[in-house]
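Below is our example:

___
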Amino acid sequence: MTQNGIVLVASVSIIKDDEVLIIKENKPFAINKWNFPSGHIEYKEDILDAACREVKEETGFDVKLTGTTGVYNFISSSNDQVILFHFTGEVIGGALRIEEDVIIDSKWIKVSELMNFDNNQLREPRVIWQIVDRIVNQKVLPITIFNDRLV
């Protein structure tokens, strides 16, 4: 959702054992860039629902959100102000099926391996480094911070 030049985004690190799923995007401002499944929050959409919807659209997986690494406010490479809500999650159903028109690849890697990527390989590397740091150092907060309906 974009309002007054502010873009609201939900993003999810899908974690399985000690690995995380990353996707390679093929979008106008993110050609051949690795990222976590993410996308715009639609008008009147619950943030948690948006995160699950975006994962389903981009990967084919159904996920259960398990925590959050936080909220990130930054100016994107497309010069938009972005407020990104980032979550951790686990697969509870579905099968890997990437959205081929905007996603060109996906892979499971160890979270720490993200530190081996160059900035030019990642979409918004400054934000991804912060997210990875929080996951690696186990600074993930409970999902109930966003919505008590999950209790």
In short: Helices lie at 47-59, 125-136. The beta strands are 2-3, 6-16, 19-27, 30-35, 38-40, 61-75, 81-94, 103-110, 141-142. The two ends are 27 Å apart (CA to CA). The chain has one domain: 2-146.
